[in-house]
């Protein structure tokens, strides 16, 4: 299964509620040594600030943590401008940005904000087209022409080039969308609420098979799992919590974990749970190789 031997990464899932101390939480995650900060993007929610604007503020307020939208609501964010926005943030932050991208979680919310009404199949096609558009505007050196069902470019001039190869990580759950992630994505984002343990291995298998079918190594695809604090996956004492997360890494191929819970427990997660998980995984992998 892809992802087994990747260096583990840990982070926090930030819900961008306007009345929360958002920059303080981000600074703490950075100070505690976490690797990733994923920012939820549901722009149609009245209490949510704009995720991309918040990304810029977070990158300016932190020094080392990597920041990404988890995940950008594609129907309300045209991919050409999304490419420009992410490249800009990556440049000004010295290469600390990746792109989480999704087809849109709430059809009603998207339509209320003037976005398109798409079937599941149409949304999946739009997502695949968006990945092609975004990469062409990051990688190309001449005018880009693209004629898809949902997006078109008529000689768009690429640039700027991001400071580093920005990963495109798809937040998808349906079987055909998982296969899409295996074909085209640099990573897959899922939450324990939407893809529980009972489905996680099967979802990974679909990604791996699609990757192999297109000649890709599944190990190239990063696997990011959001640990929803309300799902019952994590809790109790720190040893139990660390053991559960380590098993996800060792048995399910997950290589990146975001804690989605009360920021009051951020220090415990970063300074107690994370080192224990790393130690367990290193020990178990060493024993398995003997």
UniProtKB/TrEMBL annotation:
<dbReference type="InterPro" id="IPR036661">
    <property type="entry name" value="Luciferase-like_sf"/>
</dbReference>
<protein>
    <submittedName>
        <fullName>LLM class flavin-dependent oxidoreductase</fullName>
    </submittedName>
</protein>
<dbReference type="InterPro" id="IPR011251">
    <property type="entry name" value="Luciferase-like_dom"/>
</dbReference>
<dbReference type="InterPro" id="IPR050172">
    <property type="entry name" value="SsuD_RutA_monooxygenase"/>
</dbReference>
<keyword id="KW-0503">Monooxygenase</keyword>
<keyword id="KW-0288">FMN</keyword>
<keyword id="KW-0285">Flavoprotein</keyword>
<feature type="domain" description="Luciferase-like">
    <location>
        <begin position="21"/>
        <end position="224"/>
    </location>
</feature>
<keyword id="KW-0560">Oxidoreductase</keyword>
<dbReference type="Pfam" id="PF00296">
    <property type="entry name" value="Bac_luciferase"/>
</dbReference>
């Amino acid at each position: 299964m892809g992802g087994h031997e990747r260096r583990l990464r840990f982070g926090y899932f930030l819900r961008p509620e306007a009345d929360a101390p958002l920059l303080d939480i981000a600074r703490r995650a950075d100070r505690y040594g976490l690797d990733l900060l994923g920012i939820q993007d549901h722009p149609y929610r009245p209490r949510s600030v704009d995720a991309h604007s918040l990304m810029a503020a977070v990158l300016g307020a932190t020094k080392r943590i990597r920041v990404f939208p988890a995940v950008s609501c594609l129907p309300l964010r045209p991919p050409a401008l999304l490419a420009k926005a992410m490249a800009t943030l990556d440049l000004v932050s010295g290469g600390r940005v990746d792109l989480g991208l999704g087809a849109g979680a709430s059809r009603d919310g998207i339509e209320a904000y003037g976005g398109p009404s798409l079937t599941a199949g149409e949304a999946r096609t739009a997502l695949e087209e968006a990945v092609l558009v975004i990469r062409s505007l990051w990688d190309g050196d001449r005018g880009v022409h693209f004629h898809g069902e949902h997006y078109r470019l008529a000689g768009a001039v690429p640039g700027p080039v991001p400071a580093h190869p920005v990963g495109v990580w798809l937040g998808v759950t349906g079987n055909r969308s998982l296969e899409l992630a295996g074909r085209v994505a640099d990573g897959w984002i899922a939450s324990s609420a939407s893809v529980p343990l009972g489905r996680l291995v099967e979802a990974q298998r679909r990604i791996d098979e699609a990757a192999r079918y297109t000649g890709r190594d599944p190990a190239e695809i990063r696997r990011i799992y959001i640990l929803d604090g309300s799902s019952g996956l994590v809790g109790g004492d720190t040893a139990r919590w660390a053991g559960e997360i380590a098993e996800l890494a060792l048995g399910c191929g997950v290589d990146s974990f975001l804690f989605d819970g009360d920021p009051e427990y951020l220090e415990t997660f970063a300074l107690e749970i994370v080192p224990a998980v790393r130690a367990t995984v290193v020990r178990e992998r060493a024993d398995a190789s003997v």
